[in-house]
Amino acid sequence: MTFSIVASNPSTKELCVATSTGLVAVGNLVPSILPNVGAICVQAMVKPSYRETILDLMKKGSSNESAINNVLKNDKKKEHRQIIVVNAKGQTYVFSGLRMINICDSCMEDNFAIAGNMLASASVISSMKTAFLNNSNVFFPKRLLLTLIAGENAGGDKRGCMSAAIEYFKPNRRIMTLRIDYSNNPLKDLSMALEKRYSKECKDAFDR
């Protein structure tokens, strides 16, 4: 019921996550960033507390995979969950439970991971990967937004999109969070919000 991307730029130490779903308020439930550690999405059968727990284990030295497996080892509902994570070094990991609602798909590459469930098309994830790779020179948060838009254009969530969110971390800046909690076109609204956030007037107000 959600499609997402997490990404890291180890050379600049930027972290970013972007997500969209057919339910309201995805930004409140699915994505999270821990500066200098990593970015995560916990989706499908969402358990928001897992975000902080997994990122904290990574901060203490656990690998992405071991942090996720440690949290899920006694979880009776783990086969209904999907988790994607990237650390500050660009290492990625995806967990998709065996009882995910089809179409369920994912990909892991150096510096980014993409995953989705209850997708309308088998080409959603591959379209997102292509968009991410083809926009390497674009401002990092916009690059992830373009990735989401490519996924939506390939079908996205089979129920349609109702909410979307981006979180972005850059060293010496606080985490930037933009959320569209309910909209008939959340990715269009998120795009406008991102452009406004990084307009000169807003940069002067926020990036001090």
Descriptive overview:
The chain has seven helices and ten strands. The model has no long low-confidence stretch (mean pLDDT 95). A hairpin with a 2-residue loop joins strand 7 and strand 8. It is globular. By secondary structure, it is α+β, with helices and mostly antiparallel strands. The relative contact order is 0.19. The protein has helices at 26-29, 49-59, 64-72, 124-134, 140-153, 186-197, 200-206; strands spanning 2-9, 14-21, 31-34, 38-44, 81-87, 92-96, 105-109, 112-117, 163-169, 176-180. The strands form two sheets. It has a six-stranded antiparallel β-sheet. Strands 3-4-5-6 form a four-stranded antiparallel β-sheet. Helix 4 packs antiparallel against helix 5 (140-153) and helix 5 (140-153) packs antiparallel against helix 6 (186-197).
Quick overview of this protein structure:
It is built from seven helices and ten strands.
Topology, pairings included?
Layout: E1 2-9, E2 14-21, H1 26-29, E3 31-34, E4 38-44, H2 49-59, H3 64-72, E5 81-87, E6 92-96, E7 105-109, E8 112-117, H4 124-134, H5 140-153, E9 163-169, E10 176-180, H6 186-197, H7 200-206
Antiparallel strand pairs: 1-2, 1-8, 2-9, 3-4, 4-5, 5-6, 7-8, 9-10
Features:
6-stranded antiparallel sheet; 208 residues; 33% helix; alpha+beta; 30% strand; 7 helices; 4-stranded antiparallel sheet
**Helicity range:** 25-40%
- N-C termini distance: 37 Å
Order of helices and strands: EEHEEHHEEEEHHEEHH
Q: Low-confidence runs (pLDDT<50, min 5 residues)? A: none
Strand residues, percent:
25-35%
Average pLDDT figure: 95
Strand order of the largest sheet: 7-8-1-2-9-10
What structural class do the secondary elements suggest?
alpha+beta
Biggest sheet details = 6 strands, antiparallel
Computed CA radius of gyration, to the nearest angstrom? 16 Å
State the helix count. 7
Instruction: State the shape.
Output: globular
Number of strands: 10
